[in-house]
Design goal:
By secondary structure, the chain is mainly beta. The protein is built from 1 helix and 10 strands. The longest helix is centred in the first third of the chain and has 6 residues.
Length: about 160
């Protein structure tokens, strides 16, 4: 794995958190800006995009989740984003794995609008964070370039 990791331009990483008794992990490739304009150019608006590089980005949870009205069973699911200039949509797939350029709409579990905000300074590498909320549930946030998008979730018992 170390040799494979060294040959990749985008390192692959995981971020994890315990939220209300569930272990959530996002596994993803972390591309860098490298002087490029990302959103609207490298990542075109109006096309489904896998937020990462190489293999599809995977959200794995030890318990079922709920993102808005979208029920997500426990286990691994690929995640996708549909960015536009003003609205961004999170897409959660039934697929447990895949390649980042092979999105299959017929495997969608559901879609929900992401909360989008601009950043004061650029984030060089695509970054995911999972954080518990003090009142229960948590938030999954992705940042890259000058943009942060997030979605709140709850753990289903």
């Amino acid at each position: 794995m170390a040799a494979r990791q060294q040959s990749r331009i985008s390192p692959h990483e995981q971020t994890s958190a315990m939220v209300d008794g569930a272990r959530l992990t996002v596994t993803y490739g972390r591309p860098s800006m490298r002087g490029r304009t990302v959103f609207g150019q490298l990542v075109p608006y109006g096309r489904v995009w896998c937020p990462g590089a190489d293999e599809a980005t995977v959200l794995n949870s030890t318990k079922p989740l709920r993102f808005g009205t979208v029920h997500v069973p426990a286990g691994p699911h690929t995640v996708w984003i549909l960015p536009t200039s003003n609205r961004w949509t999170l897409i959660i797939s039934k697929e447990a794995s895949g390649f980042h350029t092979q999105y299959h709409e017929n495997t969608d579990l559901g879609r929900l609008e992401l909360t989008k905000r601009g950043l004061d300074s650029p984030v060089e590498q695509l970054t995911f964070v999972i954080a518990p909320n003090p009142s229960g549930g948590g938030t999954m946030t992705m940042t890259w370039e000058m943009t942060a998008v997030s979605a709140a979730f709850t753990i289903e018992q």
